[in-house]
Amino acid sequence: MQREQLADFLRRRREAIRPAEVGIAAGPRRRTTGLRREEVAMLAGMSVDYVVRLEQARSSQPSTQLLAALARALRLSDDERDHLFRLAGHHPPLAEGTARLARAGLLRMLTLLGDTPAMVVSDLGEVLAQNRMSTLLTGDHTGRSGDDRYLIFRWFTDPSMRVTHPDGERDQHARQMVADLRAVAGRRSGDPEVTALVSRLTAASADFRRLWDEHEVAVRRSDRKTIVHPRVGPVTLDCETLLTPDLGQQLLVLTPAEAGDRERLDLLRVLGTEEFPRPPADAAHPR
Question: Residue 265: pLDDT above 70?
Fold first, then answer.
């Protein structure tokens, strides 16, 4: 661990980030053009004291999870992120680990989208980052582990996932997810991560087995969906999917289909962040 170099790098990257880049208003009394330490701590989900100790070269060795959070908070490029890991005495994440870190450019786009719900998703359906409106609309899907991090796995094994979609759209949504996974499996033929996920899904869900056997293939690029929110009701949205050149990550952007849907999103933004309710088990029975 190169403490002095790590401290210098973190200080310089913090000072280089403008508050607006991460969705923070600068305010008239701000003395620095970069981020404050407490703002980095908030964005990374760690204590201010630890950020201070990192920047003063007197911290313990940060974990890889903490470094990944710092990389996201500071909007580091892939090269900068790898440099951060090396300074902290860790090997940079391999291809699989890298795929679980949202690209810096996509993170900036999330911020620029403001009140438009958007999220960064891996090709296997892991939510890598969400903006505030996405979290308000669908709940927080980041920071999960194991199979729970895959949206498709939770869709076919957790009944509460399905109640956020109207009855009439559930089958189509399931088909789209399976067809998209088929496309990934074809593109990443022989990849053990993909084959293992398919194997676990096949063992866990008869519905998945049925749809997988139909061998439908389609990369999702755009569609219309309805999210049934427990506080503002159904919101119909047009979903545009922007793919990275290697197809490894996607930026999903949700725009209201009609004026009434925009009004419900505006109401949701005003209501603010509260714990996203979990439906009772009997109401979440999948059809």
Answer: yes
Specify the amino acid at residue 286: P
Closest CA to 129 of 158, 109, 157, 145: 109
Token readout for 120 is 């960064």
Q: How far is 31 from 52, CA to CA, in rounded Å?
A: 18
Of the candidates 51, 53, 24, which has an alpha carbon nearest to the alpha carbon of residue 40? 51
Burial class of residue 233 in the structure, from the number of CB atoms within 10 Å of its CB (0-12 exposed, 13-18 middle, 19+ buried): middle
Same domain for 116 and 65, yes or no, is no
| Residue 43 shares a structural domain with residue 159 | no
| Residue in 187, 241, 191, 183 with CA at minimum distance from that of residue 212 | 183
pLDDT at position 98 over 70: no
- Is this prediction's pTM over 0.90? no
Residue 159 belongs to some domain of the structure = yes
Sign of CA dihedral 89, 93, 97, 100: positive
88 and 146 share one domain: no
Alpha helix stretches (DSSP H) within 129-282: 132-138, 151-157, 167-187, 192-204, 206-213, 259-271
